[in-house]
Structures are given as structure tokens and as C-alpha cells.
Specification:
317 residues; alpha/beta; 8-stranded parallel beta sheet; globular
Length: 317
């Protein structure tokens, strides 16, 4: 079947502040059918423990994405010439019921993945990674994971609840959704409840790279090691915006000082080129805590970088 290579609406065709309110002003499509990759929003924040507001993340990320042009001038990636990409809108979560929303999200991703399309998710709090990974396992088996975050998100429970934004990767291990030896967590930092907080993932075989190991350096050498660790199997990329220092991304619910820079975040994503990326997310953007829009702007650009490293993207010489 011949695929349509949709292009973002250019700034010389329509002023950047106008046009469709989609990711990068791409065409809106009702489903992932016929697409190689899709942008999809999950406007969800009922799993948040501190500052809510990530339900507004997808809308604001899309708004700030109007500034992004279709070619990656640094890496020379031409994703829209290579893949059929569109915005398929938002998952219609149940605002009042977390458990029901988890079911809705999993079913939505079952449908997306059944078409062979790779989802790039605009979050939403990090709870949404669990139902997405559940859908991923049904199609790909246990996946490898590159997880950028200030927090390990492996709590046993939060206020007695087993599903929340601080628990998804413990549940993912328990449910066999992850290949533990093919997991890397980058940017973890801050205070904790016990000295063992970052040791539990290490006990599962995860590579844990605390933020202090990243200070004052390029992360390109680290990503070469992580590509070797993750190998040839399917890999999911989950990027919590609070992995970045709040100086760069203040609009998030659980900020931690001493985090990654924006350029380090870009190095991590670009360092995933060559991996078999089967899906990505950018979560925990909470626009009410950043009236400048800068956090959403960073999130939009990181999602574009994720698109640029998907398998099948061509690079111009």
C-alpha cells in the first residue's frame, strides 16, 4: 500500500501562530491506520501525587510545537520524507476514575499497535506508561527501556494505591512487561525515603545512572554503552520532563534540583538512534507551573527528536 508522507504546515504557508492546533501542525487523522508513526495525547493527571496539571500537557505541547520545522539540521534526519506521520488526537480517559482510565489507555494502544504504527505519546503523568507497556508486551513481548527521570518510579505503593505515577515500573517488572537486563534509567536524583530507593531497580538488572554521574559532561559515551546493553530487541523510550533540571523545565509536578540539561536530554534521545524503538512518551509537563510555555516548548522539541530516531527515518547526506 502506498503511504502518504504528510508534511507539517510550513511557516511561509500560514503564520506560526495560526493554523491547525495539532502536533507540528500536521494533519489530524481519526486513527493510526496507514501511519508509520503517530502523535497521540493522553491528557491524564489523576495519578499525580503533588502538583496536578499534566492533563493540560498535550494541548500546550502541541501549541508550542508550531515552531518546529520538518528537518533536523543537526542530525540531518528527514522524518516526514521517510515515514507517514500524523496527529491522531487524544485518548478519551475517564477524568474521575483512574482504574477505568488505565483500561481505556491500554485498549487505545492495543488499537494503535495493531496497525503497526509507532506511537509518540504526549502526556499526561507517568502513570500512563503502565498501560502503554501492557499493550507493548502483547505485540512485542517484554521490551527494553530507556527511562529518563528524576525518580525511579518503582514505589511499592503510594497512599496504599498500587497504580500511580510513582509506581509504573515496579508494576511493569512484576507483570513481566520489561526485560530487566535491557533497562537503563538516567537522571535519577534528589532525596529519598531509604538508602535502597535506587537499589531495587539495580537488583532487577537495570542500569541506573544517577544525575551526579552526568554532571559537566557529554552523555554521548554513555549512550554508546547503553546501545550495546540494549542490543537488537524492541525498546521503549519514556522521558519524564522532570529528568531535566527545573531551570530548564519548571512546569512539572515533582521538580528536583541538579538535573540534566536540555542538551543532555537531546544527547540521550539522539543516542537511541539504531535501537529498535517501538514507541516513546514525553510525560509530566504541567503547563500551569510555567506560564512562559518553555517547558512545553522543550517537550515538543524532544518529541520531534524522538521521531527522528525511529527505525526507517532517512538521513540526508
Amino acid at each position: 500500500m502506498t503511504k502518504t508522507h504528510y508534511q507539517p504546515l510550513g511557516g511561509n504557508q500560514m503564520p506560526r501562530f495560526a493554523g491547525p492546533a495539532t502536533m507540528m501542525r500536521l494533519p489530524s487523522r481519526p486513527s493510526a491506520e496507514g501511519l508509520d508513526a503517530c502523535f497521540v495525547g493522553v491528557p491524564f493527571d489523576i495519578g499525580t501525587s503533588n502538583r496536578s496539571g499534566t492533563r493540560f500537557g498535550p494541548r500546550e505541547i502541541r501549541a508550542e510545537s508550531c515552531l518546529i520545522r520538518p528537518y533536523n539540521m543537526a542530525t540531518r534526519a528527514a522524518p516526514f520524507d521517510s515515514l507517514s506521520v500524523a496527529d491522531i488526537g487524544d485518548v478519551a480517559i475517564n477524568t474521575f476514575n483512574l482504574a477505568k482510565s488505565i483500561e481505556i489507555i491500554e485498549e487505545a494502544y492495543d488499537t494503535i499497535l495493531a496497525t503497526g504504527c509507532k506511537p509518540l505519546t504526549l502526556g499526561g503523568d507517568h502513570t500512563i506508561a503502565l498501560p502503554i507497556l501492557r499493550a507493548m508486551r502483547k505485540r512485542h513481548g517484554p521490551v527494553g527501556l530507556v527511562h529518563v527521570d528524576a525518580h525511579a518510579d518503582i514505589n511499592e505503593h503510594m497512599f496504599g494505591e498500587r497504580i500511580a505515577h510513582g509506581t509504573p515500573f515496579r508494576r511493569a517488572v512484576e507483570e513481566g512487561l520489561l526485560d530487566g537486563k535491557r533497562v537503563a534509567q538516567i537522571g535519577l536524583r534528589g532525596s529519598g525515603y531509604a538508602a535502597e530507593d535506587f537499589d531495587w531497580p539495580r537488583d532487577q538488572g537495570f542500569r541506573v545512572v544517577q544525575a551526579e554521574e552526568c554532571w559537566y559532561k557529554s552523555l554521548a559515551p554513555l549512550m554508546a554503552e547503553i546501545r550495546e546493553q540494549l542490543g537488537n530487541g524492541p525498546v521503549y523510550l519514556s522521558f519524564d520532563i522532570d529528568g531535566l533540571d527545573p531551570a530548564f523545565a519548571p512546569g512539572t509536578g515533582t521538580p528536583e534540583i541538579g538535573g540534566l540539561t536540555v542538551t543532555q536530554g537531546m544527547e540521550i534521545i539522539r543516542g537511541c538512534r539504531g535501537l529498535d524503538i517501538v514507541g516513546c512518551d514525553l510525560v509530566e509537563v504541567s503547563p500551569p507551573y510555567d506560564s512562559s510555555g518553555n517547558t512545553s516548548l522543550v517537550g515538543a522539541n524532544l518529541l520531534f527528536e524522538m521521531l527522528c530516531v525511529l527505525p526507517g527515518v532517512q538521513y540526508r547526506n
